[in-house]
Amino acid sequence: MTNELLTATLAEKVMHWGVAPDRFLLGNRQWISRTQFQPLNRVQDAFRLLRKLTSIFSLTRSGDGTFTAAVRIGDRTGRASGESEAATITLAVARAIGLEPDERQPPKTGVDRR
Questions:
Q1: What is the pTM of this model?
Q2: The domain spanning residue 84 has which CATH number?
Q3: CB count in 10 Å sphere of residue 28
């Protein structure tokens, strides 16, 4: 599953947005461009996914800088770990809702922005 497909799937299934080729449709004739929602790269968008879900989550950071996230939704728990805070949270959310993103964490494409 590509990063773009994962992001679009999360926008549709978690955020309940419509998905168009270059934008996400928020409803009420509102939309945002795809560059404005990047949960694999921007930590504020990853937390936006968490806030949308009724979930229990934990996030830790080890001494070597590796993040570990666990997200529980109902009876499912998604887990992920890696160097990128945003990608780690997003992959844990994806697994908690039943998606199976690649085992390998997406490459970090920039600094997590808070």
A1: 0.86
A2: 3.30.2120.10
A3: 6
Beta strands 76-82 and 18-20, pairing class: unpaired
Question: Mind listing the pLDDT tens digit for each residue in 28-59?
Answer: 999 999 999 999 999 999 999 999 997 799 99
Closest CA to 113 of 79, 91, 94, 87: 87
Segment (H or E) for 5:
helix 3-13
Percentage of the chain exceeding pLDDT 70: 89
- Taking CA atoms, 1 is separated from 4, 28, 58, 61, 77, in Å, by 8, 30, 25, 26, 20
Query: Residue 18 is part of which domain span?
Result: 3-96
Lowest average pLDDT, out of 34-48, 70-84, 91-105, goes to 91-105
Question: CB 52: neighbour CB atoms within 10 A?
Answer: 13
Max CA separation in the chain (angstroms): 46
